[in-house]
């Protein structure tokens, strides 16, 4: 009976498999596996030093992340033209995160384990950062994350070169309060950044006597905003705080405009609309609306003139530059400064050298805050103009010290 | 007869050797963890081969069950990391209050979580199937409906950020039933568990394919009404296959969590659900080996080709998919039969393709 | 061809497997396809159901087997059929065939018959492979002369063989009432003869209802005839009685098959 | 109360968008049994047609009106090409059509990305479509924007035109004949292949028209189709096969339900509610709101 024999064979194989699996067991949780926390192996053998670029080149996030990749490449080319880092040319290894969080984790693993890069630059969404974070921590490697985010995070393996909440959201609220805004409507996409941002906004509002008259979330990618526009209109707030992301902004502003709401009657302050997005939404619907960032293409600094000129020379004269691109560009230079300060590519050395490193970035001079691994950044409130640019109308003046857990704000107690 | 039975067995033994001896020996830790991920997709594909290839139910919503299994496992791992009475880290950050939601509580028990990995998706599939098949919703209606349900589940998860992690999903797991996931040796163990699971799933499905139930399932696929007139309730026949395939997707989702270290709504919605089907379709929807290998090959090609040529990869994948479905509905697995049919007057059934055999016979 | 094992039992069952239809009505979207039909078919009868196109023959069979929702009453072996789902009616021992032979084309002849024989199987039996040929299936293969083709895909059978396979499936299903919708359409002459004889043998201890347009076939094999017209019973009786009915002649005016003298072999 | 009325009007305007995107599908899926997942990309082609026209003709109003027939032609042509090359071979395999056309939709998306770039493009709304009318005044005024009104008018006009075509013209009679009994129609001398092609042209063309309308309310980008297609299919599934009436009722019913639920809860919950309502509805009427009965077994 071949069949009976077949099953016996099959069960033998399975039993062997189980045995193999169990015999392969390694460390239990809590045990230290040998020599303490892992340190990434970095390939420093050649006359080049490899770094990883991890951005979505396909999928829904490609629109934004491709521009970040371009800015990263620009910085790397400039540094290489200038002699490289510690005498080595930077060799960028690009990976496509494909707008898919597990793919990000997979590619991060590949860059660290297989390519043995010195650092990785990239990620955009918080979800992708959260997905790769354990990979970087496990392997003891470094990530430079260039996008404003929701704070409440401080990994020793990540440098955050975008704004945390007290450098973008809190100043925006300060500005609105200065303008006499006493009631707010919150509209956001349904994911971690808007939800966390709105918790912070609510806590701020409660402490400062601002009324939150409504709070709505739309699923990412949602394009039907008739009802939300109705609700915003009916609520009659002084201003709208907008944390929508991507395509939803297009529908939201078209509907907002159609509902007869304007920047004069009820301004919208957005924290996820930069120069690139303005083009896709249409200036017709956006003129006069507000944004909160650390950098605009129009920001007045010598470094920015060079940056914009170099970027447009490389990628096209009609290409705008934006805050995340600037933060990405800056992040490569900061890493270079840290490495040169440390005289080594090793992660531990680089981290030890990080505190106080400065760079004359397009947004002005930025300084690394060693304890949180964030940057001191200046906040700028901008107004969207009819030609699609954003002009600065207010600034926090001094660079703001990063405070990802908002520990320096009394009203923020209990948020984290 | 002997040959036709020994051949698959030899194939099975060969697969076992390849998975347990060859792959761990030649692949780096990183590549092996990639393979572990592909094997999870292969498990889903085997379930799809059962439900779609044999049962004719185009399950465009397998992400729903994959997600249920994955979240059940991830919730347990999160709680285990947090320790007794602890809260998962993301709840401390984004949650409201310091309370664990009641529906998280049972997942502290490893036994409950392991059972839930299979029971949750299968129960839900049984419920959906009962409602849908009983009312004879089928074909495209069923496909669209199952897709919509997967989309709805993803939306629901995203909307409950405080208790499900929202878009971020659940990530950053330290241990797997007491074993540190950071240890490469344990990663290897996870790989072996997944490989064993795939082998077991292949065995079970092969038995189903060749049992009387498997024949009945094909009959239901080809003419549901006719089966009804023979005294069977086709709804129950389909329900069983659908439930089993959901269980496989759930198992795959659960194993995916320790292997890849994340489960998120991005693995559940419409696009991933269709991706699951693509692998099975290209490999061969009604062939076990075809579906499993197809899923692995497509995932592998995605990783390697999309790195180099993201745009070209889309064209290639879409083009291949269109060509296979339109001109080779049995998938690449049916190539073998197309080639050998002339030589051997096969007495075995041709791999069913879901299409009525239109060709007349030389009577 | 040997006789099927089932037909060797000569005694009729204690509970007569009689079909009794009372005031049956089927309406689709305001169109009444069957309009108050009464029909009695006794065990051992071989009843032919004839009538012009649209007379309601197929709809009547649909209603009896649960496919078309109907009002009135259909009782078989004392049980009411209306309101039961299709597969439950089938389990009461009622089987049917369709105008176009409906077999499972992707399965072999053997598999087709095995499925037909197995509605009552337990889950554990279902989950195992078929080790032996069930006796009823072997017998049906013999009866329908399909033994040589048992491993061929049903989809590759010639048309006539498919129809026999369908009848074979009814045999292994062990039904007490067979409803056949044009079982010999498209068959060659010798095939029809063989089918007719097979029906005669089957009908010995079962109730058989045949929808048929072929008048030669009817004259050769019908034990009784019911003529439907516009959803009602127009006439009923033996072939001779029905042929003599002037109303039938009127309905079939211009269709001489029924009234003309029988062909050579009748 | 006025909120309810206001939201109902919002629902109707949502329904009008749903109806426009589902109308072409209702024809190709409902009447021909073809599940065209590339329908969303045909809509996208209509939107891009509007964009291209606006690039060349500076006046937003003229280009929008011109875009209507142009988009109909562009999307219709895409439809014919798809029908000729692939779908024609798959009429007996509806589920495979679904998968094949999904592959086609991937191709078309990538094509759009390569031609127009990955970011969204912008079009401007003509002056006569900005602003709104007030239906009821009062504390909670009920208003309807001109753009929404335009879409509603367009949807109604499309339904009327399609109904008249199907009822009154010889082409319409042929289409209905093929739908009801393909073999019989063929036997009575109707060139079914040509009728199929024409039906597909009209159905796909309607998708193009929907694309023009969507430029007024939503983003124009390579992925816009994927966001739409499931909604459109749900309308057709609920509406039932074979009759436009079902699709019309379904579109407005789903639109109003969505609008009412999302006003009091959230958009996500509203979407989930609508889906559950659809599953429940199919329990009650598995074949949708209205169906054409056929005598065939399958």
TrEMBL record, chain A:
SUPFAM superfamilies referenced in this protein's UniProt entry, alphabetically: Periplasmic binding protein-like I
State the name under which the record lists this protein.
Urea transport system substrate-binding protein
Signal peptide feature range: 1-23
Q: Name one Pfam family in it.
A: Peripla_BP_5
Instruction: Name the keywords, alphabetized.
Output: Signal
Instruction: Say which species the protein is native to.
Output: Streptomyces harbinensis
* InterPro entries per the UniProt record, alphabetical: ABC_urea-bd_UrtA, Leu_Ile_Val-bd, Peripla_BP_I
Q: What Gene Ontology terms for biological process does this UniProt record contain?
A: amino acid transport
Tagged with keyword Signal: yes
Automatic annotation (TrEMBL), chain B:
Q: Which Pfam families match?
A: BPD_transp_2 (PF02653)
Protein name, UniProt field: Urea transport system permease protein
PANTHER family, alphabetized: HIGH-AFFINITY BRANCHED-CHAIN AMINO ACID TRANSPORT SYSTEM PERMEASE (PTHR30482), SLR1201 PROTEIN (PTHR30482:SF4)
Which NCBIfam families does the record cross-reference, listed alphabetically? urea_trans_UrtC (TIGR03408)
Transmembrane regions: 35-53, 111-133, 140-159, 165-182, 189-209, 239-264, 276-301, 313-335
Q: What is the lineage of its organism?
A: Bacteria, Bacillati, Actinomycetota, Actinomycetes, Kitasatosporales
Question: What InterPro entries does this protein map onto?
Answer: ABC_transp_permease, ABC_transptr_urea_perm_UrtC, LivM-like
Entry keyword Transmembrane helix? yes
Q: Which domain of life is it from?
A: Bacteria
Intracellular or extracellular location(s): Cell membrane
The record's annotation in CDD domains points to:
TM_PBP1_LivM_like
Annotated stretches, region: Disordered: 340-363
Membrane topology value: Multi-pass membrane protein
- What GO CC terms are in its UniProt record? plasma membrane
Q: Which UniProt keywords apply?
A: Cell membrane, Membrane, Transmembrane, Transmembrane helix
Report the principal subcellular site.
Answer: membrane
From TrEMBL, chain C:
Q: Keywords, A to Z?
A: ATP-binding, Nucleotide-binding, Transport
GO CC field: plasma membrane
Q: Which Pfam families does this one have? A: ABC_tran (PF00005), BCA_ABC_TP_C (PF12399)
Q: Gene3D superfamilies given for it?
A: P-loop containing nucleotide triphosphate hydrolases
SMART domains membership:
AAA (SM00382)
What's this protein's name? Urea transport system ATP-binding protein
User: Does the keyword section mention rRNA-binding?
Assistant: no
Q: Which domain of life is it from?
A: Bacteria
GO terms (molecular function) for this protein are: ATP binding; ATP hydrolysis activity
User: What residue stretches are annotated with the ABC transporter domain?
Assistant: 19-255
Organism listed in the record: Streptomyces harbinensis
List the PROSITE patterns.
ABC_TRANSPORTER_2
Does the keyword RNA-binding feature in the UniProt annotation?
Answer: no
From TrEMBL, chain D:
| Transmembrane intervals | 12-35, 63-82, 147-166, 200-220, 232-257, 269-286
Question: What's the domain of life for this entry?
Answer: Bacteria
Q: Which GO cellular component terms, listed alphabetically, does the Swiss-Prot or TrEMBL entry include?
A: plasma membrane
Single GO BP term:
amino acid transport
Name its cellular compartments.
Cell membrane
How would you describe this protein's topology in the membrane?
A: Multi-pass membrane protein
Q: Does the keyword Nucleus apply?
A: no
Q: Which family does it belong to?
A: Belongs to the binding-protein-dependent transport system permease family. LivHM subfamily.
Protein name (record): Urea transport system permease protein
């Amino acid at each position: 009976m071949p069949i009976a024999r077949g099953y016996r064979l099959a069960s033998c194989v399975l039993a062997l498999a189980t045995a193999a699996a169990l015999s392969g067991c390694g460390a239990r949780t809590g045990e230290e596996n040998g020599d303490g926390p892992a340190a990434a192996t970095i390939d420093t053998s050649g006359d080049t030093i490899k770094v990883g670029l991890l951005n979505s080149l396909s999928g829904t996030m490609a629109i934004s992340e491709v521009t970040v990749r371009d800015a990263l490449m620009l910085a790397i080319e400039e540094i290489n033209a200038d002699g490289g880092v510690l005498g080595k040319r930077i060799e960028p290894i690009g990976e496509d995160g494909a707008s898919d969080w597990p793919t990000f984790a997979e590619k991060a693993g590949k860059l660290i384990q297989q390519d043995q890069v010195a650092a990785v630059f990239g990620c955009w969404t918080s979800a992708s950062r959260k997905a790769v974070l354990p990979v970087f921590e496990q392997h003891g490697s470094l990530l430079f994350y260039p996008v404003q985010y929701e704070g409440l995070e401080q990994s020793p393996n990540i440098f955050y070169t975008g704004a945390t909440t007290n450098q973008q959201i809190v100043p925006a609220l300060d500005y609105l309060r200065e303008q006499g805004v006493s009631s707010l409507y919150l509209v956001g996409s349904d994911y971690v950044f808007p939800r966390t941002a709105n918790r912070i906004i609510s806590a701020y509002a409660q402490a400062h006597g601002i009324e939150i008259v409504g709070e709505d979330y739309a699923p990412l990618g949602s394009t039907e905003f008739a009802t939300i526009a109705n609700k915003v209109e009916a609520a009659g707030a002084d201003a709208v705080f907008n944390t929508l992301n991507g395509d939803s902004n297009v529908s939201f502003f078209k509907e907002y405009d159609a509902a007869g709401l304007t920047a004069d009657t009820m301004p919208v302050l957005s924290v996820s609309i930069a120069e690139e997005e303005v083009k896709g939404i249409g200036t017709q619907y956006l003129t006069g609306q507000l944004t909160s960032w650390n950098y605009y293409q129009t920001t007045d600094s010598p470094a920015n003139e060079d940056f914009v000129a170099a970027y447009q020379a490389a990628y096209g004269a009609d290409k705008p530059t934006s805050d995340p691109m600037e933060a990405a560009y800056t992040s490569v230079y900061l890493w270079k400064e840290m490495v040169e300060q440390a005289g080594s590519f090793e992660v531990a050395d680089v981290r030890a050298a990080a505190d106080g490193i400065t760079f004359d970035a397009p947004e002005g001079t930025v300084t690394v805050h060693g304890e949180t691994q964030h940057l001191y950044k200046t906040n700028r409130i901008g107004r969207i103009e009819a030609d699609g640019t954003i002009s600065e109308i207010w600034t926090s003046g001094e660079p703001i010290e990063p405070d990802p857990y908002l520990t320096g704000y009394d009203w923020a107690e209990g948020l984290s | 007869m002997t040959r036709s039975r020994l051949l698959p067995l030899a194939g099975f033994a060969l697969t076992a050797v390849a998975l347990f001896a060859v792959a761990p020996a030649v692949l780096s830790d990183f590549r092996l963890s990639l393979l572990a991920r592909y094997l999870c997709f292969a498990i889903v594909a085997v379930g799809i081969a059962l439900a779609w290839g044999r049962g004719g139910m185009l399950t465009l919503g397998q992400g729903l069950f994959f997600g249920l299994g994955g979240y059940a496992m991830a919730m347990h791992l999160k709680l285990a990391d947090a320790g007794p009475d602890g809260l998962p880290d993301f709840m401390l950050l984004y949650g409201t209050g310091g309370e664990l939601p009641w529906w998280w509580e049972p997942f502290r028990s490893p036994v409950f979580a392991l059972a839930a990995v299979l029971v949750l998706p299968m129960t839900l599939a049984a419920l959906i199937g009962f409602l849908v098949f009983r009312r004879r919703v089928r074909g495209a209606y069923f496909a669209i409906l199952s897709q919509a349900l997967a989309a709805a589940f993803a939306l629901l998860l995203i909307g409950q950020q405080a208790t499900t992690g929202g878009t971020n999903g659940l990530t950053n797991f330290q241990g797997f039933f007491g074993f540190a996931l950071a240890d490469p040796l344990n990663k290897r163990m996870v790989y072996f568990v997944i490989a064993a699971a795939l082998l077991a799933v292949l065995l079970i499905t092969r038995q189903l394919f060749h049992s009387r139930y498997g024949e009945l399932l094909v009959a239901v696929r080809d003419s549901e009404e006719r089966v009804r007139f023979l005294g069977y309730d086709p709804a129950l026949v389909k329900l069983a296959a659908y439930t089993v395939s959901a269980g496989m997707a759930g198992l795959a989702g659960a194993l995916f969590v320790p292997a890849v270290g994340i489960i998120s709504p991005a693995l559940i919605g419409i696009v991933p659900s269709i991706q699951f089907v693509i692998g099975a379709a290209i490999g061969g929807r009604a062939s076990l080996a075809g579906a499993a290998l197809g899923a692995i090959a497509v995932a592998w090609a995605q990783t390697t080709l999309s790195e180099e040529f993201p745009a070209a990869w889309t064209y290639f994948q879409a083009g291949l998919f269109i060509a296979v479905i339109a001109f080779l509905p049995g998938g690449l697995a049916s190539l073998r039969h197309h080639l050998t049919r002339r030589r051997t007057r096969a007495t075995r059934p041709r791999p069913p393709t879901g299409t009525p055999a239109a060709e007349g016979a030389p009577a | 061809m040997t006789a099927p094992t089932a037909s060797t039992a000569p005694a009729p069952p204690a509970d007569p497997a009689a079909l009794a239809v009372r005031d049956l009505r089927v309406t689709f979207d305001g169109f009444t396809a069957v309009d108050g039909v009464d029909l009695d078919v006794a065990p051992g009868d071989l009843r032919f159901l004839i009538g012009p196109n649209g007379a309601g023959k197929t709809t009547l069979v649909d209603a009896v087997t649960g496919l078309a929702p109907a009002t009135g009453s259909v009782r078989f072996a004392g049980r009411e059929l209306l309101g039961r789902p299709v597969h439950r009616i089938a389990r009461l021992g009622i089987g049917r065939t369709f105008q176009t032979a409906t077999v499972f084309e992707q399965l072999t002849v053997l598999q087709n018959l095995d499925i037909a024989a197995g509605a009552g199987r337990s889950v554990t039996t279902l989950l195992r492979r078929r080790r032996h040929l069930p006796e009823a299936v072997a017998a049906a293969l013999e009866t329908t002369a399909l033994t040589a083709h048992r491993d061929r895909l049903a989809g590759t059978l010639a048309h006539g063989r498919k129809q026999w396979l369908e009848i074979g499936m009814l045999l292994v299903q062990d039904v007490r009432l067979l409803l056949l919708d044009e079982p010999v359409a498209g068959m060659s002459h010798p095939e029809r003869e063989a089918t007719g004889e097979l029906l005669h043998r089957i009908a010995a201890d079962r109730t058989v209802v045949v929808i048929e347009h072929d008048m030669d076939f009817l004259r050769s094999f019908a034990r009784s005839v019911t003529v439907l017209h516009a959803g009602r019973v127009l006439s009923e009786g033996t072939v001779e009685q029905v042929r003599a009915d002037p109303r039938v002649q009127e309905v079939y005016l211009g269709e001489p098959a029924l009234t003309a003298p029988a062909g050579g072999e009748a | 109360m006025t909120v309810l009325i206001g939201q109902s009007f919002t629902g109707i305007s949502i329904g009008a968008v749903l109806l426009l995107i589902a109308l072409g599908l209702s024809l190709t899926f409902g009447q021909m049994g073809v599940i065209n997942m590339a329908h969303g990309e045909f809509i996208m082609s209509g939107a891009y047609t509007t964009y291209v026209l606006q690039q060349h003709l500076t006046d937003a109003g003229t280009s929008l009106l011109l875009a209507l027939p142009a988009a109909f032609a562009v999307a219709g042509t895409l439809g014919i090409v798809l029908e000729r090359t692939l779908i024609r071979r798959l009429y007996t395999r509806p589920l495979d059509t679904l998968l094949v056309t999904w592959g086609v939709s991937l191709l078309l998306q990538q094509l759009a990305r390569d031609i127009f770039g990955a970011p969204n493009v912008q079009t401007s709304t003509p002056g006569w479509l900005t602003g709104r009318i007030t239906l009821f005044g009062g504390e909670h005024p009920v208003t309807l924007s001109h753009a929404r009104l335009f879409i509603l008018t367009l949807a109604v006009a499309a339904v009327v035109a399609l109904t008249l075509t199907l009822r009154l013209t010889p082409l319409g009679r042929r289409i209905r004949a093929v739908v009801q009994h393909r073999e019989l129609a063929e036997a009575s001398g109707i060139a079914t292949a040509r009728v199929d092609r024409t039906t597909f042209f009209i159905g796909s063309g309607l998708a193009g028209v929907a694309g023009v309308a969507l430029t007024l309310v939503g983003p124009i980008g390579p992925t816009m189709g994927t966001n739409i297609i499931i909604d459109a299919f749900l309308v057709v599934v609920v509406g039932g096969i074979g009759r436009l009436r079902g699709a019309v009722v379904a579109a407005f019913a789903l639109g109003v339900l969505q609008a009412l639920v999302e006003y009091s809860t959230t958009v996500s919950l509203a979407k989930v509610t609508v889906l559950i309502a659809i599953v429940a509805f199919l329990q009650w009427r598995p074949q949708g709101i209205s169906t054409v009965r056929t005598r065939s077994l399958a």
